[in-house]
Design a protein that fits this description.
By secondary structure, this protein is α/β, with parallel strands linked by helices. It is built from 15 helices and 28 strands. It folds into three domains: about 180 residues, Phosphoenolpyruvate Carboxykinase, domain 1, CATH 3.40.449; about 240 residues, Phosphoenolpyruvate Carboxykinase, domain 3 (Alpha-Beta Complex); about 55 residues, Phosphoenolpyruvate Carboxykinase, domain 2 (Beta Complex). Strands 11, 12, 13, 14, 15, 19, 20, 21 and 24 form a nine-stranded mixed beta sheet that branches. Strands 1-6-7-8-10-9-4-5 form an eight-stranded mixed beta sheet, sandwiched between helices. A five-stranded mixed beta sheet has the order 2-3-17-18-16, covered by helices on one side. The radius of gyration is 23 Å and the shape is globular. The structure holds adenosine-5'-triphosphate and manganese (II) ion (MN). The site of adenosine-5'-triphosphate has 20 residues, from helix 7, strand 16 and helix 11.
Length: about 550
Amino acid sequence: MVNHTQKTKTIALEAYGIKNAKVKYQLSSDELHRLTIEKGQGVASSSGALAVNTGEFTGRSPQDRFIVKDDITKDRVWWGKINIPFDSDKFEALYNKVTDYLSNKEVFVRDSYACADDNYRLNIRVINEYPWSNMFAYNMFLRPTEEELKDFTPEWTIVSAPGFMADPEVDGTRQHNFAILDFTRKIALIGGTGYTGEIKKGIFSALNFILPVFKNTLPMHCSANVGKDGDTAIFFGLSGTGKTTLSTDADRSLIGDDEHGWTKENTVFNFEGGCYAKVINLSQEQEPEIYAAIKKGAILENVVMNDKGDVQFEDTSITQNTRVSYPIYHIENIRKPSIGGNPKNIFFLTADAFGVLPPISKLTPSQAAYHFISGYTAKVAGTEAGVVEPMPSFSACFGAPFMPLHPTKYADMLSQKMKESGVNVWLVNTGWTGGPYGVGTRMKLKYTRAMINAVLNGDLGAYTYENYHIHSVFGVAQPRSCPGVPNEVLSPRTTWNNDEAYYRTALKLSNAFRENFKEFEEHATEEIRRGGPQRYAL
Ligand code: ATP
Ligand code: MN
């Protein structure tokens, strides 16, 4: 009998400087799951998923993300606190240390690719110290067929060695962990951290440079899905604002939950082949599709389980950022391949912890550009020591940590594409209602879904003064009614029952917008500036 899973191809890593390694090439998800457990690096949950702990790091470490400053990047990258320069010779030396470290070890290698649209495909070879990191690469990147593997030419290489610790004095890093992109060598080098998100966001950052610079395509930190009539919707938002949750919708085919490109051919394609969902407080009732995706093949990260292996979703004792990765085919209703047409609606998701932004509002083109550059969400008290009030957090393009170019580059491209396509843009507050964090409550997911569905199904009234109210502080148009949502929920001021406190807080937020925008003022056109709040505190 023919064994279809048996691989005949083997890979030598000497060319990478990794000597005498015991190479495990292209192992199946099942094999990696089994090996992880055998090595004591993970256990199976009661639903069959693999559960691992990522170690010291349970989130990305933006201060340890570097880009090698070379001929390709030096005049193009927006250098600063987000894109921290790294010396090319230092990179070479550190790379050699990492590959020495991996030499003589068992090493897991996987060929995969990013970008579901063939015109943009980027072949990637992933080299991992741990089997579960390699399984993460299987889940998150696109999977070549057996046929494609026969003559696979990798373009980029990811080397991930969580057990390798850098020596900052010698290696030029900030501390023992690092994630470094080298655009000349086409390598993402990761060490000292086992957080799997570094692997996917490394390639995302690389594409956020490559696509706009060389391919005239706009990369976006957004999720995307398609309705029955073929209408594409995309959802931008910072971490925790609802990209994964809201794009996973039984009635709409999922294109992807996090990273997409909008092409000059007027298509939207997924960079990835899987999803990476937050599972804090996940419930089967509220998020049935994601809940069902947590089965054999999925990898749970940093969750706590009871002695039966049932995940305790409310338990944040390891981290608030508990996660699950799964290949996109764990979701039933998906688009194949992961490509849609020009979006008809764009949603900007924000988790406003001040509770002052309307739960949904329509933006003019100026406001859309302004809010895209601003990238507002809020950090809530409790997660960082000393934070007692909600803190506004601004991240340009709703994804500044992953954007190597100046934010206005992406904003200009988006404005251009929005104009050409005549897309509608909506600002959705998935954060607080009835008062700020600590007083009010998080917007009910049921209501947010109803508002989004009303937009997508054309059930919100025509864009007129009878149907919309212009917010006196933010200038955005908030609908007066929406099927499935009580009218008072649509007006944040009403939910506060205290006009004075509401306006005081709203003005506090509008001032924060103004403060943040100063950095972009000189690059922004009059049209973009007009999109900001209409009133500020004295
Ligand atoms: P990341 O970029 O880190 O992947 P994300 O934008 O995909 O973040 P989600 O994983 O969708 O964020 O997280 C949103 C979280 O907020 C989920 O845990 C979800 O259950 C919760 N939530 C609560 N209320 C709402 C709401 N009204 N709308 C959206 N999400 C909500
Ligand atoms: Mn997500």
